[in-house]
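[INFO] parsing input record for AcrR family transcriptional regulator
[DEBUG] input buffer:
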Amino acid sequence: MEGTEQLTKRQMKALQTRENLLKAGRAVFLENGFQKATMTQINKMAHTGYGTAYVYFRNKDELFVELMETIMQKMYEVADLPFRPKTKEEAFSQIQKQTQLFLKAALEEKAIMQIVKEAIGASEIVSEKWNNIRTRFINGITTDIDFVQKTGLARPDLDASLIAKGWFYMNEQLMWDLVLEEVDGDFEKVAVNLVKLYTGGLYQ
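[DEBUG] output buffer:
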């Protein structure tokens, strides 16, 4: 753990306990699903004292939200890739790469992402967290669209924030379809089709 050199033994132990609870939580959620998982099960798997989990997390929803942040890191890294294309071809290539990486990251965490989908429908806290994640992605996409509009690569008559929402929602829906195995698992094919549709309407 970075930045732990100045921590006391007690603080180090607390950090380790938290990590143990998160690790145990992931295992319990994967085994039982979100709705059937309990804090008692998580506490037991983490080998912590009775009720210790509640010292760190008010409930399983709060623990799961922290797990989600960890899971989403790889997707955030994709979203944060620099986007400064100089040509339409360069833009298409970068968007296709980002889309493929986004879908690939979700599929690499397919089992836990299936639990995320369940939890979004079962927990107001998790649903709110997912909406915050959506907003982060949409804001990033809006910035990218603003850039290509200002450089003359994209149509200036379109509302960047509306297009960003539509683009993310398309990616999100097909991500869930792939994760839940409701469409063919070829994420590269999915990405190519998505990007052709998106760029065909946005770019001049």
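[INFO] The two ends are 48 Å apart (CA to CA).
[INFO] shutting down worker
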